[in-house]
Amino acid sequence: MLPLTEWETQLASRYPNAHLLQTASWGRLKSAFGWKAECLQTDEAGTLLLFRPLPFGFSVGYLPRGPIPSTTGALADLLPSIDRLCRSRRAAFLSIEPDWSDEDTARDELRRQGFQPGIHTIQPPRTILVDLRGSEDDLLSRMKPKTRYNIRLAARHEVTVSSSGDIAAFARLMGTTGLRDSFAVHSEAYYRSAFAAFRPHQTVELLLASYRGEILSGLMAFAQGARAWYLYGASSNLHREVMAPYLLQWEAMRWARGLGCAQYDLWGIPDAEENDLEAQFAGREDGLWGVYRFKRGFGGRVWRSVGTWDRIYNQALYLVYRLWIARRQREAT
Fold first, then answer.
1. Torsions phi, psi of 79, nearest 5?
2. Which of 73, 114, 319, 321 is the most buried (most CB within 10 A)?
3. What's the Cα-to-Cα distance from 316 to each of 33, 50, 116, rounded to whole Å?
4. Phi and psi dihedrals of 322, rounded to 5?
5. How far apart are CA 183 and CA 124, in angstroms?
6. Does the bond joining 55 to the residue before it have cis omega, within 30 degrees of 0?
7. For 91-106, b where at least 16 C-beta lie within 10 A, e where not — what string?
8. In sequence order, what DSSP letters do the residues of 256-277 get, joined into one string?
9. Does the global pTM surpass 0.85?
């Protein structure tokens, strides 16, 4: 096992394009909120794992968007070390969400290596990936006409977008958005810790959009290697006619391009096939459907990961977990 400082060095030298959720900074963030971060490395591969304690000395393990490199061979190489670590932590099971496309070969390989489909998705499996390559005019030309119009409309209304460290203002916006759109948000302490974990490397940006002196919208974007991610975003209920969130996203993409990123991950849309997304988005407001209506306009492509897969170490505890998840899902419907 490696300490996070050593893992950070290894990422910089061997895996500069690792997924954001495999970074030492992500490990530090999650360590501040109930998880324990552990790093494993062999000659051929490495990974960050997270463990959350359960009662009576047990735990659950989670491997987010790894291993590194992002191949089935890397996972096979690491599995003996992963198993030893999980058993030493008395993990009931390990959930893994590889950064792999959802293809038959990936699913077949996960089954061959002893994983089974998980019943609880942790990160959104489906997203929109925006290609940042080319000129700014190229990017705008790939967007939907209405999105281009809204970006320019916000500029005409003199909406301003600025880099900020005002986490409290951002957290207030998140609270407003969560109430309006009925989804859970993190605490102000979490956003503050996320900003602090990545800020030393200049791989996080908090952007706030204002109109006539009032903050209307904000987002927190992250970068790692050639990719950037829009993880957290919020807007107020005021002056929605000036389209501040559109200009805000455009400026976030410009920030990512300035760091050399070639891809901007919009992070989370309904987990439905693209034909269904296009057929239904205009008439649905539940879940992430309103989010999809907004994000689809930026000209990206829909992409789905292989999803969540579980490796079981304690069958009895895993059965209890499945029953608990099933009850939560029933209560949510």
1. -55, -45
2. 321
3. 27, 21, 16
4. -60, -40
5. 14
6. no
7. bbbbbbbbbbeeeeeb
8. HHHTT-SEEE-----SS-HHHH
9. yes
Judge whether 38 and 94 are in contact, CB under 8 Å. Answer: no
CB within 8 A of 319, min separation 6: which ones?
A: none
pLDDT of residue 184: 86
Which of 126, 122, 129 has the alpha carbon at shortest distance from 228?
129
CA 195 to chain centre: 15
Cβ atoms of 43 and 37 within 8 Å: the answer is: no
Give the amino acid at 124. Answer: P
Residues forming a β-bridge with 233: 219
Find out whether 168 and 188 touch, Cβ atoms under 8 Å: yes
Task: Report yes or no: 246 and 150 within 8 Å, Cβ to Cβ.
Answer: yes
Of 12, 15, 2, residue with least CA distance to 49: 2
Q: How far apart are the first and last CA of the chain?
A: 42
Write down the pLDDT at residue 183. 82
Please give the single-letter amino acid code of residue 34: G
pLDDT tens digits for range 48-66: 999 999 999 999 999 999 9
CA distance 85 to 78: 11
Contact 161, 209 (CB under 8 A): yes
